[in-house]
Design a protein that fits this description.
Layout (H helix, E strand, L loop, with lengths): L7 H4 L18 E6 L4 E4 L1 H7 L3 H4 L14 H12 L4 E8 L5 E11 L2 E7 L4 H18 L4 H14 L5 H20 L7 H40 L5 H24 L5 H28 L11 H61 L5 H34 L3
C-alpha cells in the first residue's frame, strides 16, 4: 500500500507509528462535536482515551488532528460534499492516535445547526474488509495524481460496480452490517431491521433490472435497424418488413427514453431507492444516537460542553432521525406503488412489441425466400423478447416486495 506523505507541518508533531492499532471494544462508542469549521467543541471519554490526547489538546483543535495518512482524500471529499448538502453520512475512517497508532471506526456524521456531531463504533464486518481494500486502491491512485474530486467519482463508480447504485445504498448496507456484527460481538440481540434491509436491497435490484431493460431496448433498436436495412434490399417485397422494423424501433426507443427518465437523478424512481436506503440508514443511526445519549449519564468528559446539554442534543437528533426514518419508509412504499403502475403500462407496450415481432415472423414465412439473414434477425428478436419479459417480471416482483416490506409493522 502506497501512503500519502504527511505535510511537513504535521510530521514534526506526530511521532512515528507504533506497531499494531489502538485497542478498544465493540461495545464502546465515540462521540465528538465540532463547530462549522471542524473545530472540536466536545467529546467523550472513549474519544479521549483511544485518541490518546488530553481534553485540553482536543478541545479547540481541528478534528483533522486525528486524521491518518492512510485515508484517501477522496473519502473526505465525498463526506464533506454530502455534509454541506445537509445529509447525514456514514463512512469507514482510519484515525491516528497521538502516539501514531491507527484505529478504525465506522463514523456517522450529522449536520446540526451550529456544526456537526459524530458517533463512531468499531467496525468488523465483511463490508469493512472490502472498504479497506478499496481505500488502498484509491490511495495508490491519489499518489499517482488522482484529485480528491476524481477519487470521489471513482469511489462511487467502484461501489456501483460492486452492486451499490448510490452512496446512500452503500452506507445503509454497511451500517446495517456493522450494527449486526457489533450486536453479535457483544452478545446483544440482533437489530430487528430485516424488512428494512430487504426493502433497500429490493430497491437496488429494481435499478439493476431497469438498467438491463434499457440495454435490451437499445439493442433491440439496433436489431430493428438491421431489419430495416435488410428490407430495403428486398425492394418492393420488403415494404411490409420496413413498416414492421420502423414500428418496432419506435416503440423500443420510447421505452428506452421512458427508463432513462425514470432513472434520472431527480426522477421518482431514484426517490424510491434513496428513501429505502435512507430509512435503513436512519434506523441504525438512531439506535447509536440513542445509545450515545444514554451513556452521558456516567460520562463527564465532554470538554467545554455541558454533559446534559450534549445528551439532550443527541436525544433530539435521534428523535428527529427516528421520525425521518418512518417518513422515508412510507415514502418508499408510496413510490413503489407509483412504480408498479408505470410497470403495468410498460407491460402493455411489451405486449405490443411481441405482436410486432410475430408480424415479422409471419412476414418472413410468407416470403419463403431468404438467405438466412431474416431468420437470424427474427431469432434475435425472439431472444430479446424473452429477456425483456423476464426483466419486467423480476422488476414488478421487486416493486411489490418494496411496497410490502416498507409497510410491514
Amino acid at each position: 500500500m502506497t501512503l500519502i506523505a504527511a505535510k511537513s507541518s504535521d510530521a514534526a508533531a506526530v511521532p512515528p507509528a507504533r506497531e499494531g492499532e489502538v485497542p478498544f471494544g465493540f461495545d464502546e462508542i465515540f462521540f465528538s462535536r465540532t463547530d462549522g469549521r471542524g473545530i472540536i467543541r466536545a467529546g467523550n471519554s472513549v474519544f479521549r482515551r483511544v485518541s490518546g490526547y488530553d481534553p485540553a489538546q482536543l478541545i479547540g483543535a481541528p478534528h483533522r488532528i486525528v486524521r491518518h495518512p492512510v485515508m484517501p482524500k477522496a473519502v473526505f471529499q465525498l463526506l464533506w460534499d454530502r455534509l454541506k448538502d445537509g445529509r447525514a453520512t456514514g463512512a469507514y475512517v482510519c484515525n491516528r492516535a497521538s502516539d501514531g497508532r491507527a484505529y478504525w471506526v465506522f463514523a456517522i456524521v450529522v449536520p446540526i445547526p451550529d456544526g456537526y456531531l459524530s458517533v463512531r463504533i468499531k467496525p468488523g464486518s465483511e463490508s469493512f474488509a472490502q472498504a479497506r481494500l478499496l481505500y488502498a486502491d484509491l490511495l495508490d491512485a491519489e499518489a499517482r495524481g488522482l484529485s480528491p474530486s476524481e477519487g470521489a467519482a471513482e469511489l462511487r463508480r467502484r461501489l456501483a460496480k460492486a452492486g451499490f447504485p448510490s452512496y446512500e445504498s452503500f452506507q445503509a448496507q454497511a451500517l446495517a452490517a456493522e450494527a449486526a456484527h457489533r450486536a453479535g460481538s457483544i452478545g446483544r440481540p440482533q437489530p430487528d431491521h430485516a424488512p428494512a434491509i430487504r426493502a433497500a436491497l429490493a430497491a437496488d435490484g429494481i435499478e439493476s433490472e431497469l438498467g438491463s431493460m434499457r440495454r435490451i431496448f437499445r439493442e433491440a433498436v439496433r436489431i430493428a435497424l438491421n431489419l430495416r436495412i435488410h428490407a430495403s434490399q428486398l425492394g418492393h417485397l420488403g415494404r411490409a418488413l420496413s413498416a414492421i422494423a420502423d414500428n418496432y424501433a419506435l416503440l423500443c426507443n420510447t421505452m428506452a427514453v421512458w427508463i432513462d427518465h425514470r432513472m434520472a437523478e431527480t426522477a421518482d424512481f431514484n426517490d424510491l431507492v434513496r428513501s429505502a436506503s435512507a430509512s435503513l440508514f436512519l434506523m441504525n443511526a438512531t439506535a447509536l444516537l440513542d445509545e450515545m445519549s444514554d451513556t452521558f449519564a456516567g460520562d463527564r468528559e465532554t470538554g467545554l460542553g455541558d454533559p446534559e446539554a450534549e445528551r439532550a442534543q443527541l436525544a433530539g437528533v435521534a428523535a428527529d432521525y427516528r421520525a425521518r426514518a418512518g417518513a422515508c419508509r412510507m415514502r418508499a412504499a408510496g413510490d413503489a406503488v407509483t412504480l408498479e403502475s408505470h410497470l403495468v403500462e410498460m407491460r402493455h407496450h411489451v405486449t405490443g412489441l411481441d405482436a410486432i415481432r410475430m408480424l415479422c415472423r409471419v412476414e418472413s414465412n410468407r416470403q419463403g425466400r431468404t438467405d438466412g439473414t431474416l431468420d437470424q434477425i427474427v431469432n434475435q428478436l425472439d431472444r430479446f423478447q424473452q429477456e425483456l419479459a423476464l426483466c419486467l417480471s423480476r422488476t414488478m416482483s421487486l416493486g411489490r416486495e418494496v411496497r410490502i416490506l416498507a409497510t410491514a409493522p
